[in-house]
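Workshop exercise sheet. Pairs work together: one partner reads the sequence aloud, the other fills in the structure field after running the prediction. Swap roles for the next sheet.
Pair: D.N. / O.F.
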Amino acid sequence: MPILLPAGGTAEVQLIFMPDTIGVFDDVMTFCWDINSDTLVQRIACQVKLRGSANGYEGVDEFQDAGFCVYPSPFKDFIIIESNGEIIDEVIVYNMDGKEVLRKENIQSKTINYKLGLNSGVYILQIKMEDEKHYSGKIIRE
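Structure field:
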């Protein structure tokens, strides 16, 4: 900010919603243009109402671009993996030493809910799809 637009121009504005508590949030964003000259002071404004909710299931960003939701992050006992279209075939979890600590094969589902009996720490989650594509990202156990 500020974003300067020519007459008749358009702009795309990206908002990032990162609440630190659970709940429903309402706010207003105001876009305005000020005219200040020797003879005129004027403001043209447009307000946009915003609403967002947080349920405590923040996901792992590394997977969202690949079409997955992996949450919660960090997780306590359970982790949920949801595919937006492709069928999940296999899930492997590695510790930070590269040792495999969990492998689930022949899943053939778009949604998985696993209880992971892991110690607190950072792990690598690898997801293999039915079409042989692989996706990897970090997950954190509280």
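Discussion prompt: The mean pLDDT is 83. What would you look at next?
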